UniProtKB/TrEMBL annotation:
UniProt cross-references to Gene3D superfamilies, sorted A to Z: alpha/beta hydrolase
Superkingdom: Eukaryota
Residue ranges of domain AB hydrolase-1 in the record: 22-220
Protein name per Swiss-Prot or TrEMBL: AB hydrolase-1 domain-containing protein
InterPro entries tied to this protein: AB_hydrolase_1, AB_hydrolase_fold, Sec-Metab_Biosynth_Hydrolase
A Pfam family per the record: Abhydrolase_6
Length: 235
């Protein structure tokens, strides 16, 4: 649930507060702690709020619940939406930073929350999504279908190029179920909300060729360029 998010507010005099927030949505295998470096970099940019959400489908989040109770993509999307929608209602302009599987969660949770959609209705809204090695199914696809068997193993070495972690020694994440990989994307939020796609060229979990294909999905569906950026590992 949203109250488990790792949230930090930077207090400023009211007249100086930017109405900006950054929401980070982790990969399937990762907890918020794995994104401390990224969150710190985001805070340095000066937004009032930086939130790292916890995907409920990570087993550590549900305390060892049995398979029948394992949450999936829809639970992850509903959880992220609680946080994002709350910020939008506060009048925040929200940037979503989504890593790998987190891009699927982001795409599925933003229906009706885009800044352009809310123009004249709310002061806030989601202004952009940044996908870092993001998995991007077509609407109606699930993750397993989208990756076409090309997804690599999730190891610290394979994640070295994602620019989101302190180091390999911290990459041991919670056990993750396959359920979210089987639920289909019912809403392609990337169609309406502008996307920047960061290709992490040394990532062997989501290979660069697959990332480039996903960036193409965004561009085809949105009918506009998505602003592709490339990044290499920092060792």
């Amino acid at each position: 649930m949203a109250h488990n998010s790792n949230q930090r507010r930077v207090q400023r005099p009211r007249e100086q507060r930017p109405n900006a927030a950054i929401v980070i949505i982790p990969d399937a295998y990762r907890s918020p702690q794995h994104y401390e470096l990224l969150a710190a970099s985001c805070r340095a940019l000066g937004p009032e709020v930086v939130v790292v959400v916890q995907n409920p489908s990570s087993r550590s989040f549900i305390g060892g619940a049995g398979p029948a109770a394992t949450p999936g993509l829809y639970d992850d999307a509903a959880n992220a939406r609680l946080t994002i929608e709350g910020l939008v209602r506060e009048g925040q302009n929200v940037l979503i930073v989504a890593h790998s599987y987190g891009a699927v969660v982001a795409s599925g949770c933003v229906r009706g929350l885009g800044r352009e959609e809310l123009m004249g209705v709310s002061r806030g809204g989601v202004v952009r999504m940044l996908f870092i090695a993001g998995i991007v199914p077509w609407e109606g696809q699930n993750v397993n279908e989208a990756v076409e068997g090309m997804l690599g193993a999730s190891t610290s070495d394979n994640y070295a190029g994602c620019l989101t972690h302190h180091g390999g020694e911290k990459l041991g994440g919670p056990e993750y179920s396959g359920a979210p990989f089987e639920e289909r994307l019912t809403y392609a939020g990337y169609r309406r909300i502008p996307v920047t796609y960061m290709v992490t060229v040394t990532d062997r979990t989501v290979p660069a060729t697959l990332q480039e294909m996903f960036a193409g999905v965004v561009e085809i569906e949105a009918g506009r360029a998505c602003g592709i950026r490339s990044a290499t590992a920092r060792r």
